[in-house]
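User: Proteasome activator Blm10 middle HEAT repeats region domain-containing protein, Hanusia phi:
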Amino acid sequence: VLKYEERPGVISLQVFKAANKLVRSLIHSLITCRPKEYRSVDPKLWNNPGWKNLHYEHWGNVIDLSAANVSWNVPSPEGLQWAADLAAKYINSSAQVLRRYHSEAQEWANHREDMEV
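Assistant: Predicted structure for Proteasome activator Blm10 middle HEAT repeats region domain-containing protein:
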């Protein structure tokens, strides 16, 4: 968990949330496969000056997905390792706290069941 102290001993909730969102977004971008471009036409056609002048004539056209020329952003081994390191540093400690709370809650629930019988 990322912590930032505005004043000694005072952790800013806004900065805490923003930092955690940043880590979450960074990990997501490092591990996901996604198209490099989100355009509905082939990159060669998109970069054609003649087509750019008349692009509005093609609005709403449906393309066959098998004919789509999509280039994918695939995670690199270095990116996956970096994501694993970030997760180990920032997520695992929080997950351990949640597991501890869960086990304590289970113990309490079991204890209450024993008392009711």
